[in-house]
Write a structure and sequence with these properties.
Length: 246
């Protein structure tokens, strides 16, 4: 089977059974056939996907020299296209370098605030097959103990608000993607990033529907807006639209 992604034609094979997906990434100079013995031994319990990296096996070479990050981006695009996330990865040599990048960047949960951004965050979490976490203004008694922080908010950063999240929501070291509907000064985004860091979690990115150019981000980084507003006070003066990327 083939897939046209990232300017190359990828070759991949899928077989096996079960609800748990396993992706196999070969080493430099190798190809799909080198994983055949391992894949054969696992296919009775797992759904296996094995790929040829670009310029290997039956895959075409990239249009220009690629680094490890480019290979990882291409594999991530294939994972999303095939709908096999989340998946376990078995890798050899160079495939292990790609797997490390994928693991470091792929979120294990989506975090949002109890605002209009919930529908966007919900669909993002559903697409990525990860849990949705909702930070609230006030904690709920039935949620048990919670972590509470204060953060600076408002159009001019002129007020202090609070947000809470139940203590059991995020495990230390968990990779979190922050999603919100609108970011003007970045106060809420910074607050959610601070909240995630209180859990010793890793913020792998921030996705927003609409963002102002004048965002003042302190701890929320790697922001990907769907719509970038040129002038935050006068939306009618123009916007720039680009594809959102996680």
């Amino acid at each position: 089977m083939q897939a046209e992604l990232c300017g190359v034609t990828l070759h991949y094979e899928q077989y096996g059974q079960g609800d748990r997906h396993v992706l196999m990434l070969h080493g430099w100079g190798c190809e799909i056939k080198h994983f055949a013995p391992i894949a054969d031994s696992l296919q009775s319990d797992y759904y296996i996907t094995v790929i040829d990296f670009p310029a290997h096996g039956q895959a075409t070479p990239p249009p220009q020299p690629w680094g490890v990050a480019d290979f990882a981006a291409c594999v991530k695009a294939l994972i999303l296209q095939l709908g096999i996330a989340p998946c376990d990865i078995i890798a050899h040599s160079f495939g292990g370098r790609v797997a490390l990048l994928l693991a470091a960047e792929h979120p294990e949960a989506v975090l949002t605030m109890e605002t209009k951004g919930i529908p966007i965050a919900l669909m993002t979490a559903k697409h990525l097959s990860v849990p949705l976490l909702i930070a609230r203004r006030d904690s709920r008694a039935y949620e048990g103990s919670a972590v509470k922080i204060n953060y600076v908010a408002g159009p001019h950063g002129d007020r202090v608000e609070t947000m809470t999240l139940e203590r059991r929501a995020i495990a230390p070291g968990q990779r979190v993607l922050i999603v919100d509907d609108f970011a003007k000064n970045g106060g809420t985004l910074n607050g959610m990033a601070d909240l995630a860091y209180e859990f010793q979690a890793q913020v792998v990115g921030v996705g927003v529907m609409v963002a102002a150019r004048e965002l003042h981000l302190r701890r929320a980084h790697n922001v990907r807006p769907l719509v970038h507003v040129k002038y935050k006070e006068r939306f009618s003066e123009g916007v720039e639209v680009g594809a959102i990327q996680f």
